[in-house]
Amino acid sequence: MSFLRPQLAPKSNFRPQRDTLWTWLSTPKKRIDLNPYHLPGLFHTYNLGAYISGVCAILILEGGAAFWSISQGVWWVALVAALIIDFVLAYVSHLFQASICFNRNKLMVVSLAVSDPNEQARQRARLERDLGWRTFWQKVFYLLILVDAGFKCWCFHQAYPFIDAVGLLVVICYIIGGILHISCTGNVLYSVWFSLKWHRDHNLYLDSPTDVNVSFSSVRIERPLDSKFTFKSAVAGNHSIQQKDGSAVFTTMGVLTDDEIRNLLNAQEDSGSRWHLATFLLHHQLTFL
Asked: Which parts of 72-116 fold into alpha helices (H)?
């Protein structure tokens, strides 16, 4: 599982390429709760083991249902094709996920990126329009997965036209398989793809000459925090909030993960300061994309 959950080593200045970080957006997320607000989540892979278990359940449920269907006379070529189409549709439906994740996060920090209220409104409208269309097309492919599950049920019913416990069990297996494809398959496929990219980048970082691996390296930078708010000192990996000359300064090196944001936010006592810091840190995360 550690291969599928790559971690940034402490004190390391390794930075994955932008394309790798973009793929990271397609993995499952857990939002950062800041009552009454929240951040959608960006650089984090949440509870991947549960999604892998879901894919294993698909193989067991649909494999058993397919075996019984073929034994009753369903043409195996049509059934195997339908099973493959499920995985293809799950993959294609998840092509939209990175942009959906990016737009949800970008909407949280439009006011930090643009000062003019009219331009803020225009950017927000564009992001909401893009988010709406991508979400719509993703749901279209979800519907196609359920249609494919219905097709497998229809094929089985043609060969086994009886309404009994066995028939209902096969139908339930296909329907649950379709639902699990929607919720699990894309997340697992893209998590594997992200992990492969991450380890590729890290190996290039380790093996490349100094003048080449600069593209995989980060430098330490400091950014002042708004003096209108009070911030507590905190450290999370290669990132920290420190007091310098009476002002709070955010010091960072490399990619800031969601878990590190949580650690920095948990050290803050004032809710206003916590929310301002949350949007500040999210805006910093988005600069890597």
From this structure: 76-93, 97-108, 110-113
How many CA atoms lie less than 13 Å away from 234 in the CB half-sphere? Answer: 17
Q: What is the model's pLDDT at position 206?
A: 85
Tokens 């009476």, located at residue? 246
SS3 12: coil
Q: Could you tell me if 58 and 184 are in contact, meaning their C-beta atoms sit under 8 angstroms apart?
A: yes
Cβ atoms of 138 and 96 closer than 8 Å: yes
Name the burial class of residue 66, with classes exposed (0-12), middle (13-18) and buried (19+) by CB atoms within 10 angstroms of its CB.
buried
Q: How far apart are CA 26 and CA 21, in angstroms?
A: 9
Mutual angle of helices 48-71 and 76-93, in 10-degree steps: 160
- Report the largest interatomic distance among the alpha carbons of the chain, rounded to a whole angstrom: 80
Residue 282 corresponds to which amino acid? L
Q: How confident is the model at residue 113 (pLDDT cuts 50, 70, 90)?
A: low
For 40, residues 6+ apart whose C-beta sits below 8 A from its C-beta are: 29, 31, 101, 104, 105, 108
Q: What type of residue sits at position 114?
A: V
Identify the DSSP state of 208: S
- Strand partners of residue 14: 217
Question: SS3 of 188, please?
Answer: helix
pLDDT digits 0-9 by tens, 189-198: 999 999 999 9
Q: Which two tokens stand for residue 245?
A: 């000359």
Helix axes 76-93, 186-207, angle to 10 degrees: 60
